[in-house]
Design brief:
about 575 residues; mainly alpha; three-stranded antiparallel beta sheet; 25 helices; about 55% helix
Amino acid sequence: MESSVHTYQSLPKDVLDFLSDFDGMDFIGGLIEKYGANPEATSQILRLVDEIVLGNVSLENVPGELEKITGLDSSTAQLAAVDLLANRVLPIASLIGLNVEGQLSAWGADPSEFKNIACLAVPAPIVIPEPTPLHQTLAAKGAVFSDPIMQHRLELIVASYRDGVRTKEQAIAVLMRSVKTGGLEMGEAEAGKVLGLVGPVDTNLQIGYQSTNQRIVTNELVDDASGTEVPGKSGAKADHFSDVDAAEVATIAEAKKSALEVPTLITDTKAASDRIVAEAKLSFPSGEVRTRFDHIIDARLRDVRDGFGTREKLEASVESGGVGMSGASLVTAMEMVESMDAMHHLALGAKMDYLKEKIATEKAERIEKAEGQKVQEAQVMSQRYAEITGKAPTEHIETSPARTSIAIPAAQAVADRAQAIDTSKVKAAIEATKGPSAVVTPVMSAATISTTASGRPIVEDIRFERKLAGPVEELRMLTLSDFRRLSSDPKQAILRVRDKVELAAQEGYEHRIAAIKAWRESPLSQMYVAVSREALMAGKSIVDALAEKRSRGEEALRDDELHAVVELNGVLRF
C-alpha cells in the first residue's frame, strides 16, 4: 500500500534523523561506485530518496528515475533500485506506510536477503506513570515544570538529595547547571527553597540496631559507651581524606583554572573527540558508533548543531542513528563538549578582536603613508612642470600614479622621478617668476565647423570613453592572477580585498552587502568553492586536491593562498 503525500513537517523525527545522517551519504557513494554511475549524481539520488519518502515518487517508478539520473541501463538501474530501497527506505517503511518488501518481491528480490537490515519500529504509546509521592509533594508546593522531561529531572535531583546520594551543596550546584549539561538553570536561593521542601532521610535510623548509645560517625557506628566501632550493614570503611588527596584536588583545581583563563581555539575536532573519550572513559559497541560520536562532536564544535540537538543525538538509540549514551557518561561528555565550545568561542572572539585591531592599525598606517607620498608626488610634479615649461606653477598640479611596475614600490618610483629632474631649469623658472611678466591676452577666433565642398558639415565617428570599475565591480571580476597582483603576500592581498569592501561600505550598508556578494561571485571565490566540492566528493582534503591540480599543470591556489581565502570568507559575512 502506497503512503499518502507527506511534508517534512509531518514526518516523524526518527525519519528526519535517518534521512539526514552521515550513513546515507556513505551508502550513496558506495552505490555509485558499485554500479559505475555518474559521481555527480550523488545529490540527485539523495533528493530521490526524499521524494520517495514524501510520496512524490512511487516505488515502481524508482528504476526509471535512477536510469534518468545516473545514465545506467534499465537492468542495472533496477538492481540499483533494489539496493536503494532495501537500505534507505525499508528501515523507515513502517513509519511512513510504504510496502517496500512487496515491491522488492515484485522485482524478483528475496526479502530474506534483507532480514539483517535494522528497521525503525513504530514507537509504542507513551504510558504516563502514576504520580509518585515526591511528585505530589513538589506539586503541592508549586515546584512543577510544564515540560515533563524537566519535571522528571527535578525529581531525580531532589530524590538524590533526599536519599543522601548528594549533599545539599552538590544538589544546589546541579540545579544551577545549564539545561544542556543536566541542570535546570535555577538561582542559588531558588534551588535552596526547592530542596527545603524535601528534607534528607534521617541516617541515624539504622534498621537492626536498637541501642540508643550508637551514633553515626563517617558512615560507621560507634558505641558511645565503649568507644568501639560496630560494623554497619554494608561493612564499608570510613573515607579518609589525606594530605595526598588534598594536593591532588588542588592540582586539578589549578589545571581547570588555567584552562578557563587561557581559552583554546579548537582547530582539530577529532582530537577534541579523542580527549572526551579518554577523560570520560567512554566505550562504544563498534567502530561505526565511535565514528558517529566523532561526527556529533564535530557538528557541535562547528556550530552546526546546538547543545540540545547534540544531547538528543547522543541519547538516541544506535538503531535510530544515535550513540545510545545515558547516565553519568552522557552528563560528563556534555559538560566537556560544552566547556570546549565555550572556550573555542572565547578564543575565536579574542582572535577576531586582535585581527580587527591589527587591520585598523595597518590601515591607518597605510593612509598616513599615502598622504605623505601624495605630498611628495605633488612636489615632484610641480618641479617637473617647471622643468618642462620654464615657469613655476601658479595652481595645484594633479598627480599621476607613481607606480610603473608591481616590482617597483611607489616611493622608489617617486624618488627616481625626482632624481631625473633638471634642478637648474627649476631654479631658473623660479627666478623668472620674481620679475615682471607681460600680460598676454589671447584672441580667440569665432568657432567654425569645417565643411566639405558640398556644404555639409563633417561628422566624426562616435568614440566611447573607457570607464573605471568601482570596488564592487573589481571584486566581482577578481581572478587568482588579480589576487596575486595585489601583493606577493596573501595576507596583505586579503587586506586589500577588505579595503575594497570597506570602501564600498562607506556608501551604505547595502553597498557592503553588494561588495560581499560580488566577492562570492568572483572567479577566485568560485574556484575555491569548486575545489572544496571536488575534495568532498573524492573524500580527500582540499590541500591534497590543490596539490593534484598543480601537479597536472592547472592553475590552482597555493597552500598559503588557500588559508588566506578561508580566513577572508570567515570575515566577510553579512
